[in-house]
Amino acid sequence: MLRQHFNQFGNYGHRLIRALSSPLVLFLVLAGNVVLVLAAFLLFHYESPANPGLKHYSDALWLAMSTVTTVGFGDIVPQTGLGRAIIAGLMILGNFFYLSFSAVLVTMIYNQERDEVLRQERLTRAEVDRLIEELQELRREIRQRGNH
C-alpha cells in the first residue's frame, strides 16, 4: 500500500522506500522509541509521587512525547530535579535521533541517486567506446576499399 502512494514520485519514491527499510534507519527508529518508552517509565516511577500531573503512565508518555518532538505543551512539567534531568536528556536525545535519522535518510537517497548517475555514465561511456570502435572499423574498411 505504501509503495502505491510513492509510485507517483517515480524513482524518488522507490529510493525513499529502500532507504526507510535499511537496517540503520530501522535501528534509529527502534532505539528512539525505546528511549522514549524508557524515559516515560522513569518519569512515571520517579516523578509521579511529587507531580500531580502524572497520574498515569500515559501522562508520563505524553510528557516524554511532547518533549522529544520539541512541542512541549506545558500542560505537564517536571517538578523534581531528577524529572528535569530526564526531560533534559530527552531534549538532547530527541534532537540527536531526529538529526541522525534525517542525515542517514538523506545520505542514503543521495547515494542511490549518485550510484544511478554513475551507472548511466558507465553505460554512456561504453556506448561511446562502442561507437568509436565501429567508426575506426569503418575507416579501415574505407581505406581498404580505396587501396583496391
At a glance:
With 148 residues, this protein is mainly alpha-helical. The chain has helices at residues 2-6, 11-20, 23-47, 57-68, 81-147. Helices cover 80% and strands 0% of the residues.
Q: How would you describe what is shown here?
A:
With 148 residues, the chain is mainly alpha-helical. It has a single domain (2-105), classed as Helix Hairpins. Helices cover 80% and strands 0% of the residues. The protein has five helices and no strands. It has helices at residues 2-6, 11-20, 23-47, 57-68, 81-147. The N and C termini lie far apart (69 Å).
Major pleated sheet: none
Question: How much strand?
Answer: under 5%
Number of helices: 5
Terminus-to-terminus distance: 69 Å
Percent helix: over 70%
What's the CATH topology name? Answer: Helix Hairpins
* Overall 3D form: rod-shaped
Low-confidence stretches: none
Total number of distinct structural domains: 1
What is the H/E order? HHHHH
The number of distinct β-strands equals 0
CATH class: Mainly Alpha
